[in-house]
């Protein structure tokens, strides 16, 4: 569980509350107050997540993306700062144990949709640094950390 406190920021056009990232866990259950500021990236566009009273935001993490063979997407998200209102959010991260091996659920591997990821340890994954561009060029495309475990289709040899 993490409490995120975002103080008011006089340079809200230059400072991120939280830089763009994907959650590394299975699922995040987020309670946010009414200030707003959470944004998700979809089709290259940043969209604000509405604040709905008494509701929770459920965010898919990278582990669920891998286990579902990409059926569930872990969204890139960030938080912008606000020059006049402080903000509070509470994130509950649903995690595997740190020694868990993560793999695509066998029932979701088919001939038409082979496993997209090789098995990996959650501990190794969660220690992997964010891509350096996370800290510099927020707007650029950056590879997904899960891509390190992607199974590349082998070129078939034609006769
Ligand atoms: O504060 C928010 O709305 C998002 C928090 C978040 O993305 C996180 O804690 O991973
Ligand atoms: Fe997050």
From TrEMBL:
Domain Fe2OG dioxygenase: 1-96
TM annotation in the entry: none
Organism encoding this protein: Physcomitrium patens
Keywords: Iron, Metal-binding
Lineage summary: Eukaryota, Viridiplantae, Streptophyta, Embryophyta, Bryophyta
Listed GO MF terms: metal ion binding
Record's protein name: Fe2OG dioxygenase domain-containing protein
